[in-house]
Amino acid sequence: MDVDALARFLDTPHDGSPLACRDQAMLELFYSSGLRLAELVALDLDDIHARRVRVLGKGGKPRQVPVGRRADQALTDWLSLRGALAADGEPALFVGARGNRLGHRAIQQRMRQLALTRGLAEHLHPHRLRHSFASHLLESSQDLRAVQELLGHANLSTTQVYTRLDWQHLAAGYDAAHPRARRRRDSDDT
C-alpha cells in the first residue's frame, strides 16, 4: 500500500470511543511494528514496555519490536479506556465489547469495516499492513537484514518476498552505496 494512502487512512479521525481507540491502536501497531495477526491477538498487557513490544513469533520464537511514536500514542489512548471494556483479570491487550480477548476473525472483520467507512478503495487485512511495514522500511533504509529481524523471519529469502522495490529505489541505493557508482557520479560533475 502506498505510504501516502496509508497515512491518510491511519490519520482519519475517529469518535474517541473505547472501541474506536482500540481499533486505532491495533491499526497503528500492525503498521508500526510489522506484527502478524496471531502475534497481535496473543499480546497481553505485560508485553508492552516503553515503546517496544515483546511478541512470540512462529515456532514460539520470542522477539522485541519497536513501537513508533504514533502507535505508542494510540496505545496510550486505548489503555486509558481499556478498563471500561475488559473483563476482570483479562490479560489480553486487545479486548472486544464483551471484555474478552479479540480473536483473529473479529480483527479481520473490523479492519474490513474500517477500510469501508474510512473510504479506502483497497481491501485491508492485517498482512497488508505487515507487508507495507516491510516495504516502506526497505524503501527508506534498504537494510534487508534489519527488516528480517523485525519481521521475525528465520530465513532472509522469506523477507525478500516482501520486497518489491522499484527500479528507482534500487538505482538510488546503488548510486549511494557502491564505490564505483559514487566515483562515476562525482566525476560526471566535473
UniProtKB/TrEMBL annotation:
One of its GO terms (biological process) is DNA recombination. SUPFAM superfamilies: DNA breaking-rejoining enzymes. GO terms for molecular function: DNA binding. InterPro entries: DNA_brk_join_enz, Integrase-like_cat_sf, Integrase_catalytic, Tyrosine_recombinase_XerCD. Pfam families: Phage_integrase (PF00589). Residues 1-175 form the Tyr recombinase domain. Keywords: Chromosome partition, DNA integration, DNA recombination. This is Tyrosine recombinase XerC. It comes from Halomonas elongata. The lineage of its organism: Bacteria, Pseudomonadati, Pseudomonadota, Gammaproteobacteria, Oceanospirillales. The gene is xerC_3.
